[in-house]
Amino acid sequence: MRDKRVYLGTLIIFYALGIILMGYFIPRTQFGLGFFIFALLFGLYLLIYDSFGKFRPLFRTLILLSLLFRFLLLLAIPALSDDIYRFIWDGHLLLNGMNPFVHTPTEALPLLQSGDPTFYRGLYEQLNSPDYFSVYPPPNQLIFWMAAAIGQENLWISTLVVRLILLGFEVGVILLLYILSKQFKKPTSRVLLYALNPLVILEITGNLHFEGVVLFFLLLTFWLWHKKSKRIGLAYGMAIGIKLTPIVLAPLLYFQSESTIRKWLLLGTMAVLLLAFLPLGADWGGFWEGIKLYHGKFEFNASIYFLVRDVAMQWMDYNPIVYLSPILTLLTALLVLWIVFQRVLPMDILQKAIWCYLIYFLLHTVVHPWYILIPLGISVLTHYRSLVLWSLMIFTSYEAYSVPEVETSAALRFIQYAVLAVALLFDIRKGRPGVLN
């Protein structure tokens, strides 16, 4: 027994060292080294999870260790993403009484009155989209404002504020996954598939993406759905208010709910969104302009979109994204409705939610690694394991940052999505009932 504990302890030590390396020392431009260390981390993650079967009394210890791994990144400035600079920028605009949905960073820079111009200039130079309005909804802006107000012109302190908030929601996600697994008589070990996943730790705690917050409110939504609670709309509205993508689940939640719950779902969601977006007032145009530009101009790590685009460009001398994006969005809506009402495959509401997100990603023009964390978190409560495998393969998209053009390799994209397709086929063939049958 002692040898087995030494073995598990060794895995945990090397895992912690890998998290530190990825969080503090490996920039996204060093893809080869970064992917090598990440792949090692993923292997250690699977070995630790596999070892759990031999050390079941250590479940709580592993949960606490998963939180410790997150706290190891407490002092880090995000290494794989530069979004934090936009978060802090938006927060400082609000401190200066300016609306990030009215002024682009380029427009706002000469208008900033209070504070150190050198600090603002340095922050501005780190922005990845200085000529676009902010695409982060008002609830996020509240967090950005808090971070800027507390940190002032200290970027590290502002970053720490955002990280502590996201860490709090991560604790909530892990707790909800544990409660749901117990309630629906599923192995609690599945919580570790999320809690120990290196992509989850690096993208949420390390790179400070808000998918963990969205996942928290969606898990709460599904729990309230099962309880037939009138508060379901409040949780779902908050999920949409943080990031708009949960809208893709609206038909599923509505039509899978009993008639008595549907009105509360609609009323609660509308009330929360009204309050959340009320600060926009009459200045909502810039926000939606930013959203439209994001969906009609940017492209990254897409699958079907790139295939269609490359075929279309055989007859066009320009990028047809402005036409393809709305067409694919419409197709997404139709396929989501098919998933909601289909009777061919036996699927519960959580499995259907996973497929709604998968359809959205497969037809979208932009698929960053952190996007998949929401369906990944949901999937650990089902028999689906393809999202776990995708959390390894999608890291290959960081190869785009190793070249000046910031373009993903077609070969790596093919491998990534081919592996995902095969894994999904295995999940479908398993056909085991999910959590809410």
Radius of gyration: 22 Å
The N- to C-terminal Cα distance equals 39 Å
Major beta sheet summary = none
Share in helix: 55-70%
Average pLDDT works out at 91
Beta percentage is under 5%
State the low-pLDDT regions, or none. Answer: 432-437
Which structural category fits the helices and strands?
mainly alpha
Please give the count of helices: 21
Order of helices and strands: HHHHHHHHHHHHHHHHHHHHH
Domain tally? 3
Number of strands: 0
Structure commentary:
- The protein is mostly helical.
- The protein folds into three domains: 58-209, no CATH class; 213-279, no CATH class; 284-430, no CATH class.
- Helix content is 66%, strand content 0%.
- The longest helix has 29 residues, at 155-183.
- The protein is globular, with a radius of gyration of 22 Å.
- Mean pLDDT is 91; it is low at 432-437.
Topology of this protein?
Elements: H1 2-24, H2 31-51, H3 59-71, H4 83-95, H5 105-108, H6 117-125, H7 138-151, H8 155-183, H9 191-195, H10 198-206, H11 211-227, H12 232-242, H13 250-256, H14 259-277, H15 285-297, H16 304-312, H17 321-341, H18 349-363, H19 373-379, H20 386-393, H21 410-430
Helix pairs in contact: 1-2, 3-8, 3-10, 4-7, 7-8, 8-11, 11-12, 11-19, 12-14, 13-17, 17-18, 18-19, 20-21
Keywords, separated by commas or semicolons:
3 domains, 437 residues, 66% helix, disordered C terminus, single chain, 21 helices, mainly alpha
